[in-house]
C-alpha cells in the first residue's frame, strides 16, 4: 500500500524539511527530562499548566508562532491506542515523533491512523476540507499503516447503514477488496446457494435481499502446493431483526453491526494478502439478512444442513450459528491446517466479558494459547472460554439431531460454540471468536461505531500456529 492513501500520514522524506514539529513521547519515568526535550521555559510552562507526567497526558509547548512542540506520556509496550488522540488533538500541520525505548514505530503509526479515522459520509452533505495534523512516518512505521488500512476497511463496512450494506453489497465489497490482491472470488447465490448452504438460505428466506456466500481463494507468491492452508469464516448478517422471535426496538439499534464477524475476517484476509504471507488462504462469508415476512423461517422449523445433521429452530434470533454451520462444514472438507471463524454471535459473551474482550473457543490448546499470547503482547486481548462438552446435551431436540438453542438459559456463549463444534471435522484445528465489533463511546483511537478487534492478535499468532512446510 501507499502512504499517500492516508491523508493523516506523510512520507519520511517530509521529516527532513523545516517546519515539521516534534511529538516527544515519554514514559512517566522520563518526566524529569522535560527540559532536555522542550527547553527550560517549555518544561516550566507544562508544569505550571498542570502537566503531571501521567500516562495519556498530552501537553502543547508554545513557541514564537504558536505551538512549537508536543509531549505525550506513554507506557512501553504495544498499545497503539495511547497514540490515538494525537491526530485530533494536535494543531494542524506536519509532525514527527520521537519514541522512547520499548515502543516500535509501527505501533505509533497504527495508533495515529486509528485516531484519525472518520466515518464515511454516506450521503451526508460534504463538509469543507480542513487542514489536519499529519504524522511523518518514521523508519519502520509503514507496517503500522498496513494494519490501519485493514482496520479502516473493516470499520467502514460495519459503519455503513443497512440500506446501503445488504448481502449483495457486502459480497461485492469483498470482491472489490480482494481481487486486486490476486484472490479468486466467487459469489454464490440463488439455487446453487440453496443446495450448497441450506441453513444460510433458510435464514435469508424472509428477506427480499437474497443471501450471498463469498468464497475467496488465494496463494501467496511464496506458497507452493504444500504451503499451509488457512481457512477463515465470517458471519455476515447485514441486519438482524431477530426474525419471528423479534428483538425489541432498543435491541435492533446496532444490528447493522451483525456482519462484524465478516468484516473482521475480510480485514484479516486483506492483511494476509497485503503482506504476502507464504500460505494458501480460503475465506468464506455468509452474507444474509434476518427479516420477517411470510417466507421467513419459523420457530420449530427443521432444516437439513450441508453436513446432513438436522437442526430444529428453537429461536429465530439465534441465526448466526445457522449462517456459520454450513460454511464451517465446507471449510472442514478441505482439511485446512487452521480454521478460524468470527461472529457477533451471543449477548451471553458480552454479559460475561463486556464489549472489549472477545471470547475465544478452540478445540486445540496450542492454537488457543498462541492467539491469547499474541493478543497480550500486541495489546489486542481475548479471553478463552471452555468448550464444556457436558453442556452439549442441552442442545438436544425431540424432532432433529440438535436444536439451535439450548434448553437452559445459561452459558449461552458456550452452547453456541458447542453447536458450531458439531460441524467441525475431526482433526481440524479450529478457533471460534465471539466478538462485539463496536465501540459504544469514543475513546482514544476508538471512535464510536464499528470496530475490528482480534485482527492483530490472530494475525500475530498465524506464524506460530501454522505449520512450516517445504514449498513446492
Structure commentary:
There is one protein chain. This protein is of the alpha/beta class and 472 residues long. The chain folds into two domains: 3-116, Leucine Aminopeptidase, subunit E, domain 1 (3-Layer(aba) Sandwich), CATH 3.40.220; 146-465, Zn peptidases (Aminopeptidase). Helices cover 32% and strands 21% of the residues. The strands form four sheets. The protein has an eight-stranded mixed β-sheet, with helices on both faces. Strands 1-6-5-2-4-3 form a six-stranded mixed β-sheet, with helices on both faces. Strand 5 (93-98), helix 3 (105-116) and strand 6 form a beta-alpha-beta unit. The protein is elongated, with a radius of gyration of 24 Å. It starts with 8 loop residues before the first strand and ends in a 7-residue tail after the last helix. InterPro entries: Leucine_aapep/pepB (IPR011356), Macro_dom-like (IPR043472), Peptidase_M17_C (IPR000819), Peptidase_M17_N_1 (IPR048816). One of its GO terms (biological process) is proteolysis. One of its GO terms (cellular component) is cytoplasm.
Strand order of the largest sheet: 7-8-10-9-13-17-14-15
Percent in helix: 25-40%
Please tell me how large the radius of gyration is. 24 Å
Corresponding CATH superfamily of the largest domain: Zn peptidases
| Binned strand content | 15-25%
Please, how many domains? Answer: 2
Query: Rough shape?
Result: elongated
The termini sit apart by 28 Å
CATH class of the largest domain: Alpha Beta
Structural class: alpha/beta
Enumerate how many helices there are, as a single number: 14
Oligomeric assembly? single chain
Biggest beta sheet attributes: 8 strands, mixed
In the predicted model, the low-confidence regions spanning at least 5 consecutive residues are none
Organism: Gluconacetobacter dulcium
Protein name: Leucyl aminopeptidase family protein
GO biological process, one term: proteolysis
Keywords: Aminopeptidase, Hydrolase, Manganese, Protease
